[in-house]
Automatic annotation (TrEMBL):
Enzyme superclass (EC): hydrolase
Hydrolase keyword on record: yes
Biological source species: Coprococcus ammoniilyticus
Pfam family, one: 4HBT
Positions of the HotDog ACOT-type domain: 9-120
PANTHER family registered for this protein in UniProt: ACYL COENZYME A THIOESTER HYDROLASE (PTHR11049)
CDD domains per record: BFIT_BACH (cd03442)
Entry superkingdom: Bacteria
Designated name of the protein: Acyl-CoA thioesterase
Record family assignment: Belongs to the acyl coenzyme A hydrolase family.
Lineage, opening ranks: Bacteria, Bacillati, Bacillota, Clostridia, Lachnospirales
């Protein structure tokens, strides 16, 4: 039986937040934990859209902070599927600060692995992924590499 597939664009999510006083750390910047929560939320929405059901976050492979964000900044998170296994999905979430002219500056990039689960929280199959351009193919290859590295880390005990 051949599994159905979806395109990357079918499950893309873009979400916007504004940095408010309750989102700041003691240094007056966006608290990294708040940004991580937003990233996890966006990744989860991407996973739900791709898998047509519930998902759990299995791991965060990469979380790279490039610059800070401050009070009143508009934070734009863009999430997309980059790789799928049988029950798992890799999701890339790019975070930007958007100014009032709509110009975006990158502040963070994260890769998360999500697993689709059924009503008993058991892993369930996900649709395949149709790659439509070179960028999506490059992300797929990077996803294969991340999967290999996760397996190697598991074997080595960390």
């Amino acid at each position: 039986m051949e599994r159905n597939t979806k395109k990357v664009s079918d499950s893309m999510v873009e979400q916007v937040f504004q940095v408010r006083p309750e989102h700041l750390n003691g240094a007056g910047r966006l608290f990294g934990g708040q940004l991580m929560a937003w990233i996890d939320e966006v990744a989860g929405l991407v996973g739900i859209r791709h898998s047509n059901g519930d998902v759990i976050t299995a791991s965060v492979d990469n979380l790279k902070f490039m610059r800070g964000a401050y009070l009143k900044d508009l934070i734009v998170l863009v999430g997309r599927i980059t790789y799928v296994g049988h029950t798992s999905m890799d999701v890339r979430v790019d975070t930007y600060i958007e100014d009032h002219r709509g110009i975006r500056r990158s502040i963070n990039r994260a890769y998360l692995t999500l697993v689709a689960v059924d009503e008993n929280d058991k892993p369930r199959p996900v649709p395949g992924l149709t790659l439509e351009n070179e960028s999506e193919q490059a992300e797929w290859l990077a996803g294969e590499k991340r999967r290999e590295l996760r397996g190697q880390r598991r074997k080595e005990g960390f």
